[in-house]
Design a protein that fits this description.
single chain; mainly alpha; 9 helices; 72% helix; 2% strand; globular
Length: 293
C-alpha cells in the first residue's frame, strides 16, 4: 500500500499567498470608502447651517482612507517579497487597485472639497479644472501601465525584478501623488466653499496647478528615491526607533507630519534633479532598472 505524505508547510505556504491579496483588497476598500465619503461631503456642503461642519468631517475621513490605503499598498508589496509569494496576477491586481484608490479617489476628493462648490459649471475655468483632473487620472494610469509593461518584459523572476528597483523610481509614484492631495485635505478639511469667494478662487487655482504638476511628475523621467529596502537589511535598532518615533508623531500631530512627509517626498525628486543638473552630474545618477508604482 502506497502512503503519500504531505509537507506540513504546504498549507501554510498556500495561506501566505493570501496575505498580499488581503492587503490589496484592503487598499481597494479604502479607495471605495474615500469616494463615498467625498460624495457625502459634497452633498453636505449644500446643507445649512451645519452642512460645512459635516462636509469637513466627511472630507477628513476620505483623506484618512487614502492614507490608510497607502499603508496597505506598502505592506502588500513588502509581504509578497518577504514571503516570496509575488505572482503575476498580484502585480496586475495591485495596479488596478492603485487606479481606484490613488487615481479615482483623490480626483473625487479634490473635486468635492475644492472645485465643485467654488467654480460655476458654466465658467470656462470649470472645464479647465475638470480637464486637469482627468489628465491626472490618465497620467497615473499611464504610469501604472508603463510599470506593467516593464515587468512583463523582464525575463527573470519577479523577485529579481523587484530587487533591481530598490534604489530609484522613474517618475513620481502614484501613491505619494494621491497622498499629497489627501494630506492637504487632512490638514484643512473645511471645504474651500466656506472661504470668502475671492480667497476660495485663489485656493482653487493653486489646487488645479498642483494637480497638474503631480500629473506631469508621474509621467516624467525624474528619478525618485525608493525606500523599499529601508529596514530590510541587517537588523539594527535605528530603523525601529525611527519608525516608532515617526508613528508617535503621526499619532499626535498627523495633520503636520503627514503634510510635511508628502511635500518632502514629492519635491525631493525635482530638487535632486536640479542639484545634479547645476553641478553637471545629471548623467551620473544611478540608472533605474525598473519602474514601479
Amino acid at each position: 500500500m502506497e502512503v503519500t505524505t504531505q509537507s506540513p508547510h504546504t498549507g501554510l505556504k498556500k495561506g501566505l499567498y493570501l496575505l498580499p491579496a488581503a492587503f490589496t483588497a484592503a487598499n481597494i476598500g479604502m479607495g471605495f470608502l474615500a469616494v463615498l465619503y467625498s460624495l457625502r461631503g459634497f452633498q453636505a456642503i449644500t446643507q445649512n447651517p451645519e452642512g460645512l461642519t459635516s462636509a469637513a468631517q466627511y472630507f477628513n475621513w476620505a483623506a484618512l482612507a487614502i492614507g490608510f490605503a497607502i499603508l496597505f499598498d506598502t505592506l502588500d508589496g513588502r509581504i509578497a517579497r518577504m514571503t516570496r509569494t509575488a505572482t503575476a496576477i498580484g502585480v496586475q491586481l495591485d495596479s488596478l487597485a492603485d487606479v481606484v484608490t490613488f487615481g479615482i479617489a483623490p480626483v473625487a476628493l479634490a473635486y468635492s472639497w475644492g472645485l465643485g462648490a467654488t467654480i460655476s459649471d458654466q465658467s470656462s475655468f470649470h472645464g479647465i479644472a475638470v480637464f486637469v483632473l482627468f489628465m491626472y487620472l490618465m497620467c497615473g494610469t499611464f504610469r501604472l501601465a508603463r510599470f506593467n509593461l516593464q515587468a512583463a518584459k523582464d525575463s527573470g523572476p519577479e523577485d529579481d525584478a523587484a530587487a533591481k528597483a530598490k534604489k530609484n523610481f522613474i517618475g513620481l509614484p502614484i501613491p505619494p501623488a494621491a497622498g499629497l492631495i489627501a494630506s492637504i485635505v487632512h490638514f484643512a478639511p473645511t471645504p474651500l466653499a466656506a472661504y470668502p469667494p475671492t480667497q476660495a478662487k485663489v485656493y482653487t487655482g493653486f489646487l488645479v496647478a498642483l494637480i497638474a504638476g503631480l500629473g506631469l511628475l508621474m509621467v516624467s523621467t525624474i528619478r525618485y528615491r525608493s525606500f523599499k529596502s529601508f529596514g530590510t537589511g541587517r537588523m539594527t535598532i535605528y530603523p525601529i526607533l525611527f519608525i516608532a518615533g515617526l508613528g508617535m508623531l503621526i499619532a499626535y500631530y498627523s495633520e503636520y507630519v503627514l503634510l510635511i512627509l508628502s511635500v518632502v517626498f514629492v519635491t525631493h525628486g525635482p530638487v535632486w534633479y536640479f542639484l545634479r543638473f547645476v553641478s553637471g552630474r545629471r548623467h551620473e545618477m544611478p540608472k533605474a532598472e525598473q519602474i514601479d508604482s
